[in-house]
Model the fold of this input.
Amino acid sequence: LVATMKAMSITPKIEYGMGGMDANNLNAHGIRSVGVAIGYSDPHALQEKVVAADLNKAGDLVANLILNYEE
Done:
């Protein structure tokens, strides 16, 4: 994940968050996964927002992760 992000000129910011991401449930069932936040602000508030360019870059990240996947 970090290598793919760096190759895309994305600076990873690794933080511990107390969120309820799907990755938590998947990991609990033995499916290794990681949650990736996409740069939104004011999550779960009426003012929650995400910049469209950031959402597009997140899609590109997912595509690159799939294309470069190695077990």
Observations:
- Residues 32 and 52 are 29 Å apart (CA to CA).
- The chain has a mean pLDDT of 88.
